[in-house]
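Our consortium's second objective concerns turning raw sequence data into structural hypotheses that experimental partners can test. To show how far this objective has progressed, the report includes one record in full. It was chosen at random from the queue rather than selected for favorable results. The single chain below, 158 residues long, was entered without modification.
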Amino acid sequence: MTRSFDTTDINVVTTAGGQRVHTGHANQSEVITAGFNEVRKGVWNLIGNGLSNQSFIEAPEGIIAIDTGESIEEMREALRRLREMTDAPIAAVIYTHFHYVEGTKAILQEGNHVTPLPISYSWRNFAGICTWSRRAIRNRDANRRSRCDSERGAWLFL
């Protein structure tokens, strides 16, 4: 059985768009027609950009990003497409799956986000997210704060 997250390059390929993904995910993307869709005014969804979909909802303080993808490259492409529609800052990030978090680095690199950037998730769906978030924050800035709440979920501030 192959894993979604390979620590080696054995099952990892680079797509035409530059995304590094598992071979199975690349095959899935060939089946799904890629597209950036406006679901309704102020609500967008990018599908076929790897395994996850990136969704965006316009809110009063900016854009809420739902799932940032399995790679920085996935989210860079999603942000590129989003920026064709709006230049509003990313106001918050919501994770629905523990492995759709890596693209948050692209948001931080782009720099068009509120500070601190709130990130929300349900603890019950994320076995190791607090470990990941503490490591990410420790690597970024010792002055930034995070709080992991195993009962109710958590807001992380990056």
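The partners drew two points from this record. Residues 23 and 44 are 27 Å apart (CA to CA). Residues 72-83 form the longest helix (12 residues). Both points have been shared with the crystallography group to help prioritize constructs.
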